[in-house]
Amino acid sequence: MSSLQGKVVLITGASSGIGEGVALHLAEEGCRLSLTGRSAENLQRVADACKEKGCKEDSVICIPGDITVANDRKTIVERTAAAFGEIHVLVNNAGMIHYKRISNITEEEYDELFDTNMKCHVFLTQLVLPYLIKTKGCVINNSSICGQRAMPEIGPYCMSKSSMDMFTQCLALEMAPYGVRVNSINPGTIVSNISRRAHGKYQDEELYQKFLVAQAGVHPLGRVGQPEDCAAAVAFLASETSGFITGQILFVDGGRNCVSAGIATNISK
Predict the structure, then answer these.
(1) Distance CA 171, CA 158 (A)
(2) pLDDT at residue 204, as a whole number
(3) What's the rounded mean pLDDT across residues 1-23?
(4) CATH, domain range 8-191+226-259
(5) Torsion angles phi and psi, residue 15, rounded to 5
(6) Averaged over 206-227, what is the pLDDT?
(7) 110 DSSP 8-state letter
(8) Structural domain boundaries in the chain
(9) In sequence order, which residues have a C-beta less than 8 Å from that of residue 238 and are 6 or more positions away?
């Protein structure tokens, strides 16, 4: 039996992409799931898919909300605790990207980026920590390779993810005396909707497919990642198998972090 069987997992940004992949994978592991995101319709679609993977009717709940809003964060945690009585794992997955340089990002865009990628996770985690201390649970943050690699076309996004990495390590030290582990996954390019939303760069499907082909060439394994790749890493970090691992940044990037900027464009399959 999986060590994740029956664990209560709260997943933000669960309505698509990596969050959806994590939900489906953990459903197969027998977890009880609290799914939150801005789209009620998409959350319900994911919840239904989780039931097809084995989740019982009362083992998955949907809580639509915007975690950048304090009252929504409070409601999400309270409803999760009311439904399941405990929380074992928090997956801070929600995020966004602005394709802007430091030299041309607006103050409004900057605030939106850091509110969505950093601030809301700090304060949501604060609300969940009392439950995690009781269960000796864990926090898993979804960061990015961009947290450790400078990329001038998306400098503010890199900055927000670098903040997430430091949040992971500082919180790991804070929580270690309580038996609560904190780690992050740092994906490379993953097939998801983050680059295809209104604030992204690749709404056009043909352009997005060209982007994926180009990105496959700078990942040493010769492909981009899928949500399932990230989901497997999250399941490992949430499981008892990783019980002596905390404060770690786990690259899920096909080796991309090993490649220097100067030769990245010369790598091909």
Answers:
(1) 20
(2) 73
(3) 93
(4) 3.40.50.720
(5) -85, -5
(6) 89
(7) H
(8) 8-191+226-259
(9) 4, 7, 9, 26, 88, 89, 91, 138, 140
Whether pLDDT at 268 is above 50: no
Cα(15)–Cα(64) distance, integer angstroms: 9
Of 99, 110, 131, 157, the catalytic one is 157
Q: Distances from the Cα of 176 to the Cαs of 4, 132, 167, in angstroms?
A: 20, 12, 14
> What single DSSP character describes residue 204?
S
Residue pair 118/69 in contact (Cβ under 8 Å)? The answer is: no
Task: Collapse the DSSP code of 139 into the 3-class scheme (helix H, G, I; strand E, B; otherwise coil) and give the result.
Answer: strand
Per-residue pLDDT tens for 161-201? 999 999 999 999 999 999 999 999 999 999 887 766 566 56
Q: Which residues pair with 37 in a beta bridge?
A: 64
CA 211 to the chain's CA centroid = 21
Q: Is 110 annotated in the active site?
A: no
Please tell me the predicted confidence (pLDDT) of residue 215.
87
Q: What is d(CA 54, CA 119) in angstroms, rounded to the nearest whole number?
A: 34
**DSSP letter (8 states) at residue 190:** B
Q: Give yes or no for a contact between 266 and 154, defined as CB atoms under 8 angstroms apart.
A: no
pTM over 0.90? The answer is yes
What is the per-residue pLDDT for 6?
97
Cα–Cα distance measured from residue 82 to residue 58, given in angstroms and rounded to the nearest whole number: 12
Amino acid at 175: M
Q: Quick one: how far is CA 131 from the chain centroid?
A: 20
How would DSSP label each residue in 146-175? GGTS--GGGHHHHHHHHHHHHHHHHHHHHH
